[in-house]
Amino acid sequence: MQKKFLGLLLTFGLLLGCSGNKSGEIQSDDDSYYQFMEVDLSHYDLGASLFIPDETAGIGASFKTKIVHDEDFTWKISAGPNFELFIEDWGDNSERMKEFKATLKKNDIFEVTILKDEGDCIVYKRELLKNINTPKYKHISYHVYGLKKLGDYYYELKNKESGDGKEVVELMAKSIRSFKLKTK
User: Fold this and answer.
1) pLDDT given at position 76
2) CA 168/CA 171 separation, integer angstroms
3) Burial 4-25 (b: 16+ CB within 10 A, else e)
4) Residue 25: what pLDDT?
5) What is the pLDDT of residues 87-130, one digit of tens each?
6) Could you state, in order of their start, the residue ranges of all structural domains in the chain?
7) How far apart are alpha carbons 21 and 151 in whole angstroms?
8) CB 133: neighbour CB atoms within 10 A?
9) Mapping DSSP to helix (H, G, I), strand (E, B) and coil, where does residue 56 land?
10) Separation between Cα atoms, residue 67 and residue 21, nearest integer Å
11) Per-residue pLDDT tens for 134-149?
12) Which residue has the higher pLDDT, 14 or 34?
């Protein structure tokens, strides 16, 4: 009986060890969007979709998703007070990412550190250079910026100008990676 149990235990251990998944979580082909929900933007003059965190993500996204599209080329997607993603249509401007990175370098107010650069999406940290009235405390904010090509057009995706916490920005980067043309 002990040999059978040991054999089963060994087989189970080998199966887990060969899965390629070190964390033990189940991974799917969609980059593990477990705590995300898909949002269809086709009702807002944008034939695309993306995944945003749901209420189980732990960032206060328990509110109903709100999409605002007042102007011709901009959209705001909110999932509660801690998740606001802005989308802007930049037409055929394929150089927009390079232009944006150049503006980050020319900054006299903030020290900018790019934490992750995936080509079409960057995560960066901004730190206020001169802490006025609070020399003990550093003002640090995290930001995400993406430029995705859908069809013939480039779309800029970013968080709010004041920034967000690092965890929220990482979730936003995951949302940006999921931004794609809506399949019929």
Assistant:
1) 95
2) 5
3) eeeeeeeeeeeeeeeeeeeeee
4) 33
5) 999 999 999 999 999 999 888 888 999 999 999 999 999 998 87
6) 34-181
7) 34
8) 5
9) helix
10) 35
11) 666 678 999 999 999 9
12) 34
- Separation of alpha carbons 154 and 88, rounded Å: 9
- For residue 92, what are its two tokens? 């055929």
Measure the CA–CA gap between 134 and 117, rounded to whole angstroms: 31
Residues in the chain: 184
Residue labelled with tokens 């992750």: 116
What residues form DSSP beta bridges with 121? Answer: 146
Q: Where are the beta strands (DSSP E) in the chain?
A: 36-40, 48-53, 66-68, 74-78, 84-89, 110-117, 121-128, 140-150, 153-159, 180-181
With DSSP H G I counted as helix, E B as strand and the rest as coil, what are the percentages for the chain, rounded to 5? Answer: 25, 35, 40
The CATH number of 34-181 is: 3.40.1000
Residue-level pLDDT at 63: 66
pLDDT at position 133, please? 66
Place of tokens 């606001």: 84
User: CB-hemisphere CA count at 13 Å for 101?
Assistant: 16
pLDDT category at 168 given cuts 50, 70, 90 is very high
Measure the CA–CA gap between 81 and 37, rounded to whole angstroms.
17
